[in-house]
């Protein structure tokens, strides 16, 4: 029996719930929200669609006591990011929200995995780890999973190949200081840098830099256009949860404790990691160039400053 509890039934949470239903992600799905009537209504709405899906999922609104035997608690609760608002500005508001969530989840006897999607996700994941006291392997965030998917999509479109054949990652903060370690980016088995060098009249370095900037600024563009982002991240959460529930040992760029990698100890940031039923099985430490290491350090420094600003 695979069980997920979702805390926060806003647009991100319900995009995740809807995608979970359509992909028959688990056996039991519980919705928790500070607005209990909303959680009840959302559960009813999803249940009414069961007849049109291949799922037999049990969906209901619940309380924190329902977390006791859950495999995963997904946290999507928090203040939404407003147009023009930087992620660090959300920190103080969402830290208070998390204090009211994580403690009762732990008090229920929960022994599973915390998956955080609330922004700024790297810092909120560290906040969750701090409040819960859980092992580092069992607390992680969505990190740059969606950013990496955006990157592969745009590179696939530019080079004219299936994004599944693009092997490239976005690392660091899910936000303004994130970066692409191009020294590790591959089209199939060939380095992107080599493709550029071999095809100077077709593919340009400036186009690659534009793509990186587009990935970094995608969320802001979507927020300006429609007020929020939720479909992409909802589907990313499904992918991460499936990796856990099916013990896939998949490599995903989640936000997890770097734990000594890249000379970082307590920082939570987006990095390739192996995800399975135990959570973060291990990190894959890439051989970054000096320039890339500097970018990662700058990103980690920013995340450390954000965390210190909430004075936990």
Automatic annotation (TrEMBL):
Q: Where is the Lactate/malate dehydrogenase N-terminal domain?
A: 3-141
Per the record, what are the reactions this protein catalyses?
(S)-lactate + NAD(+) = pyruvate + NADH + H(+)
Give its localization.
Cytoplasm
Q: Could you name the active-site residues?
A: 174 (proton acceptor)
Regulation acting on activity, per entry: Allosterically activated by fructose 1,6-bisphosphate (FBP).
Key words of the record: Allosteric enzyme, Cytoplasm, NAD, Oxidoreductase, Phosphoprotein, Signal
Pfam families assigned: Ldh_1_C, Ldh_1_N
In terms of CDD domains, this protein maps to: HicDH_like (cd05291)
Q: Report domain Lactate/malate dehydrogenase C-terminal positions.
A: 144-308
Q: How is the quaternary structure described? A: Homotetramer.
Annotated HAMAP family? Lactate_dehydrog
**What family is reported?**
Belongs to the LDH/MDH superfamily. LDH family.
What protein name does the entry list? L-lactate dehydrogenase
The protein's gene is named: ldh
